[in-house]
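Input record, target 12 of the design panel.
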């Protein structure tokens, strides 16, 4: 039925756009997360290159000042180890609840991990230098915000796209109905159907029909002698009624035949087991008083 087709298209459109938004957000989030990790690694590497000589010379004051300067930005903690011993541990004053896992083995290369702990999302970066290593935590809140904004924008674009597609489907559907309504006259034997006037005549005699009976006759007259199945009739005559069934068709056929007079049974013909067709011969008697 038409309504089922429209419903299927609507559901399909929503699912496709939903999946597209989900994939977009995942890919976008992965991209900015990777970029953010690289940015954090560059901060830690710059600090390691700077403090290396100071640590070796024992100037912990300069090392501590450099660590504090890094906290002015997006860093939330800075730790400096030498020979496995923590010599500098500077943290953001508002930092609470983060338990940084200890590093049992000094890293041979840089290590980067995304972590969530104590209500914080952050990047944990470890960079080796000379006889020790630097550990820096970078606040990843901007990543979460940008991901959320991307999700909101994606959802908004998807909604607009869905509305556009559904609107286009509605317009096409109405255009099809309008186009069908604007068709000219259909003639088959003595039967004449004027679409514009919604007027039916049989051998020149007007046959007043209500909408459903007119729609049924118009459908059968679109391809005379062709047998239309009940499914096709339901889709054309009751497109917006999911509960219509064969009983409605039989009743409509019965009433239509009565409107067509005593020849109604010869005009609207039942083909048992298959459906109904229009069969009009030239010798039809347009006596509309019979049943």
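The sequence produced for target 12 reads:
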């Amino acid at each position: 039925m038409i309504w089922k087709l429209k419903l299927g298209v609507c559901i399909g459109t929503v699912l496709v756009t939903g999946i597209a938004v989900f994939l977009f957000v995942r890919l976008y989030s992965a991209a900015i997360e990777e970029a953010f990790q690289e940015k954090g690694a560059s901060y830690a590497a710059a600090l390691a290159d700077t403090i290396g000589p100071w640590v070796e010379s024992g100037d912990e004051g300069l090392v501590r000042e450099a660590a504090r300067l890094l906290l002015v930005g997006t860093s939330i903690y800075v730790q400096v180890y030498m020979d496995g011993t923590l010599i500098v541990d500077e943290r953001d004053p508002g930092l609470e609840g983060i338990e940084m896992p200890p590093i049992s083995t000094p890293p041979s290369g840089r290590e980067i991990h995304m972590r969530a702990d104590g209500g914080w999302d952050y990047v944990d970066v470890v960079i080796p230098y000379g006889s020790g290593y630097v550990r820096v935590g970078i606040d990843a809140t901007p990543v979460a915000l940008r991901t959320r904004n991307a999700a909101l924008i994606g959802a908004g674009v998807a909604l607009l796209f869905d509305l556009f597609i559904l609107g286009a489907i509605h317009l096409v559907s109405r255009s099809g109905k309008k186009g069908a309504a604007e068709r000219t006259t259909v003639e088959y034997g003595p039967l004449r159907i004027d679409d514009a006037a919604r007027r039916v005549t049989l051998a020149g005699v007007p046959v007043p029909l209500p909408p459903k009976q007119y729609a049924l006759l118009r459908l059968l007259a679109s391809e005379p002698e062709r047998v239309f199945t009940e499914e096709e009739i339901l889709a054309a005559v009751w497109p917006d009624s999911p509960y219509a069934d064969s009983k409605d068709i039989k009743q409509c056929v019965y009433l239509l035949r009565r409107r067509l007079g005593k020849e109604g049974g010869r005009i609207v013909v039942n083909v048992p087991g298959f459906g109904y067709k229009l069969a009009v011969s030239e010798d039809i008697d347009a006596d509309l008083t019979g049943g």
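The helical segments are 2-57, 60-71, 141-181, 211-222, 230-237, 246-259, 264-267.
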